[in-house]
Design goal:
Number of strands: 27
CATH topology of the largest domain: Porin
Number of domains: 2
Bound molecules: 2-acetamido-2-deoxy-beta-D-glucopyranose
Strand content: over 45%
Structural class: mainly beta
Distance between the termini: 101 Å
Helix content: under 10%
CATH class of the largest domain: Mainly Beta
Radius of gyration: 31 Å
Length: 412
Amino acid sequence: MRLLSLVTGSELVLLVLFLGAVQSNALKLNLTDSKGTCLYAEWEMNFTVTYKAADQTNKTVNIAVPDKVTHNGSSCGDDRNVAKIMIQLGSTVSWAVNFTKESSQYTIQDIEISYNTSDNTTFPGAVDKGVFTVKDPVKFEVPMDVIFKCNSVLTFKLTPVVQHYWGIHLQAFVQNGTVSKNEKVCEEDQTVTTVAPVIHTTVPSPPTTLTPTSTPIPPPTVGNYSIHNGNTTCLLATMGLQLNITEEKVPFIFNINPATTNFSGSCHPQTAQLRLNNSQIKYLDFIFAVKNEKRFYLKEVNINMYLANGSAFNISNNNLSFWDAPLGSSYMCNKEQVVSVSRTFQINTFNLKVQPFNVTKGEYSTAQECSLDDDTILIPIIVGAGLSGLIIVIVIAYLIGRRKTYAGYQTL
Ligand SMILES: *[C@@H]1O[C@H](CO)[C@@H](O)[C@H](O)[C@H]1NC(C)=O
Ligand SMILES: *[C@@H]1O[C@H](CO)[C@@H](O)[C@H](O)[C@H]1NC(C)=O
Ligand SMILES: *[C@@H]1O[C@H](CO)[C@@H](O)[C@H](O)[C@H]1NC(C)=O
Ligand SMILES: *[C@@H]1O[C@H](CO)[C@@H](O)[C@H](O)[C@H]1NC(C)=O
Ligand SMILES: *[C@@H]1O[C@H](CO)[C@@H](O)[C@H](O)[C@H]1NC(C)=O
Ligand SMILES: *[C@@H]1O[C@H](CO)[C@@H](O)[C@H](O)[C@H]1NC(C)=O
Ligand SMILES: *[C@@H]1O[C@H](CO)[C@@H](O)[C@H](O)[C@H]1NC(C)=O
Ligand SMILES: *[C@@H]1O[C@H](CO)[C@@H](O)[C@H](O)[C@H]1NC(C)=O
Ligand SMILES: *[C@@H]1O[C@H](CO)[C@@H](O)[C@H](O)[C@H]1NC(C)=O
């Protein structure tokens, strides 16, 4: 057993541990920061690479984890930056994976393998010499705060490279310096059918269906938000909020969790503000205004948040007109309603009730309901349909009656 300990920077300590005397393919990584462990990974892997040799035949070589590996470029990541594991198997082959943090989970993605066929020892007689890179589009979602375990062999085919992984114990974005005791076991381990444990086979072209937004999105939790002016409540809002950002082809859907979201705000005679923020959202402002001294409405929404890839998303619109209701009342919409802020940003609201002005005794006043909830519009339709039905019945009865009299049919 060999122990290799490296210090890469003041707060990042890495341990790469090789178990077993011969090549065991086992890797163990414990990235730490000031709080303790921030990324923990233990796994085994090997690959085969097929390349064209001088005699025009295809040769396949096995690549196992050698004795000496470096981990240059590995990092723990945070809310803004992806976490990465980068492993260099000598100077010929390198392997990397990213972990992208979302709200309650992270995605394992972008497994990348580079190999240098100019290395005559590993790739004897290779015709096409140079550095080749394959990037696996596979995406795995893992919940936060659990250790992901997978003992089964996972096989990914990405011509000309075939990858095998097994014995995986992994937790990225470790929250408080300690690896979780809660486990998530991969599907492959759960269905232990003893036969061919080779499950995953991916081809590079079609993007996987495991992206966060292609699965059905649960509705957001409804949160209560209230703003005080001195001792009195001056703004009340109850709502489930779902953000939909469509800067890319696949929309980024983000449910706001009220339990981990702070709120603040202010009330003035003509304007009121509610500001939400959490670890991912720097601020999300709802700004209300009064119009014609009679009604209030949602005039402005500003958002500044970090996207999954760490880049900032900053949108403002102060020319909106949503949630319009008379002053002294509240506005309510139980059905899902869309607040379209910009071409790339909309907020879906659920079980909305809001009163930004004239709150008395800390309670909502009578609500004005949105037209989506309003069933009264159906009444004229039903009455109308009923009336026209009645007229048709009368006309038919009249016609039948006439035919009966003229044709002299017997009555039943
Ligand atoms: C690579 O790993 C797979 C799966 O564990 C195993 O079947 C295969 O023998 C390994 N190849 C080498 C060369 O060690
Ligand atoms: C990794 O970094 C170390 C120094 O931290 C350096 O000596 C080594 O050459 C690097 N290895 C690779 C493969 O970049
Ligand atoms: C993921 O890792 C690859 C290298 O493996 C890198 O080129 C890419 O930019 C990373 N993706 C993100 C979103 O950082
Ligand atoms: C690839 O390997 C060859 C031979 O070992 C070496 O000369 C060359 O610099 C390597 N290329 C890269 C990009 O590392
Ligand atoms: C922090 O670590 C302790 C000890 O492992 C654990 O019980 C607790 O749930 C952790 N808290 C969070 C928020 O992860
Ligand atoms: C929000 O407030 C309503 C009424 O004021 C209450 O019924 C509900 O339980 C509250 N929800 C939460 C999550 O506090
Ligand atoms: C997100 O917005 C896009 C573009 O406006 C829309 O097509 C999609 O249905 C929306 N998704 C949700 C869940 O609101
Ligand atoms: C992050 O993703 C957004 C779209 O969702 C894109 O516009 C932006 O360029 C990306 N930033 C980085 C650093 O990849
Ligand atoms: C966000 O946008 C607002 C107005 O559009 C601007 O004042 C502010 O500087 C921007 N912030 C960042 C971090 O880009």
